[in-house]
Specification:
The complex is a heterodimer of chains A (193) and B (179). Chain A has helices at 2-19, 23-60, 63-70, 73-78, 89-100, 104-120, 130-140, 148-156, 166-191. By secondary structure, chain A is an all-alpha fold. The longest helix of chain A has 38 residues, at 23-60. The relative contact order of chain A is 0.07. With 179 residues, chain B is mostly helical. Chain B folds into two domains: 2-46, no CATH class; 49-178, no CATH class. Chain B is 79% helix and 0% strand. Classes of the chains: A mainly alpha (193), B mainly alpha (179).
């Protein structure tokens, strides 16, 4: 499915540009995006090194395991295929906490760490495990208490009350998260673990 | 709300203070341990570069070529036929952009807020939608890519269905609260 979406986006873009006489735009956009990819990766290198380093200290000190242990039974129930003391629970919980607090920079390293742990327990290495899909469903629909970037945009636009959308945002994202959990559960039932 | 803002401000310094201190007390060689972990972080960042570039290039070409606009214009009558208020249709560009690109979606949201005003219905709806979902497509590509997963199974369907629910919930709650 990803192959198809990727191909369709690319081909539809080139096709449209060709028909509307903007074919030069394709070259410029493709090259710019490739450069942007490197820029994002370089920024990530620093942040990822910092957080993975701290995370490793926390691991060696037993803090991650402790977090995994106390992480609510609710979180554990969402991942029936993982063992009760799976080392993946630590980074999963930390990723979700970072997302909730709106710490996007810290969330990515924890999320990628969680994927590495989940991959260790994955029997078929080139295929997504159910636990991974559940984690990504939670991750992409996770609640953020303070959507900082959009509040900044509202401030700049001269809003009387930039933060008034926090309540509606939390409501909408709670709906999305519940939908993600239910839909994921139904798919998992159909496809098996 | 100020409590939450304060927590967000203090949590990282607290983490950086507490974790190494506790680890040192537990006789962990903190600096060497940090370096080993940091190396893994660095390697992971390098490993996701091809996935980042692949996704960014196809999305960027798609958006810059005007193909996104054509789809939006094409889908407009469809939404009207489903009985949607034509005023709400202004949100479609953001709804389509949101799962594809974080910075792109923020750009569209900022433009909507400028165009309609931050305290208008559309401005509040754009703000709510921007804050309530994530870049599903991008996250899947990069996270799966980082561990060498090529078969994503039903992951994209789950993510996009959740995004659709987020959109519907945003429209409903903003109409309800501010309408």
């Amino acid at each position: 499915m990803v192959n198809l979406v990727w191909l369709l986006l690319l081909l539809a873009g080139i096709f449209t540009a060709a028909l509307s006489g903007k074919i030069d735009q394709v070259t410029a956009s493709a090259l710019e995006a490739a450069e942007l990819g490197i820029a994002v990766a370089i920024q990530l290198m620093g942040v990822m090194s910092l957080w993975m380093g701290i995370m490793h200290i926390a691991e060696k000190a037993g803090l991650v395991q402790a977090l995994a242990k106390i992480s609510s039974p609710l979180i554990r129930r969402l991942f029936p295929s993982l063992k009760e003391n799976s080392p993946a629970f630590g980074p999963i919980v930390m990723n979700l906490c970072a997302n909730i607090l709106g710490l996007g920079n810290a969330a990515t390293p924890f999320g990628l760490k969680a994927m590495q742990e989940l991959q260790k327990e994955n029997p078929v290495k080139d295929t997504a495990s159910s636990a991974m899909i559940t984690f990504l469903a939670l991750n992409t629909s996770c609640i953020t208490i303070v959507p900082a970037s959009i509040i900044a945009v509202r401030m700049k636009a001269g809003s009387i009350s930039p933060t008034e959308i926090i309540g509606t945002t939390i409501f909408a994202t709670t709906c999305a998260m519940n939908a993600a959990i239910i839909v994921d559960y139904l798919f998992r039932k159909r496809h098996g673990l | 709300m100020s409590v939450i803002t304060e927590v967000s401000r203090w949590i990282i310094p607290f983490f950086l203070f507490f974790v190494p201190l506790y680890a040192y007390w537990r006789k962990v060689p903190v600096y060497e341990t940090f370096v080993i972990g940091a190396e893994n972080g660095f390697k992971t960042a390098v490993k996701i570069i091809p996935f980042l570039i692949g996704i960014l290039v196809s999305i960027r070409v798609f958006v810059d070529s005007g193909a996104l606009e054509i789809i939006i214009n094409f889908s407009r009558p469809l939404f009207i036929r489903f009985g949607w208020d034509p005023e709400i249709l202004g949100i479609i560009p953001l709804a389509i952009m949101r799962p594809l690109s974080g910075s792109g979606a923020l750009g569209v949201a900022a433009q909507l807020i400028d165009q309609y005003g931050p305290d208008s219905f559309m401005g509040r709806l754009a703000s709510t939608l921007q804050g309530s979902t994530d870049t599903t497509f991008f996250v899947l590509a990069v996270y799966f890519g980082s561990v060498g997963i090529t078969k994503h199974r039903y992951a994209l369907k789950v993510g996009l269905l959740a995004d659709a629910v987020g959109l519907a919930a945003s429209i409903w709650i903003v109409s309800k609260v501010f309408g």
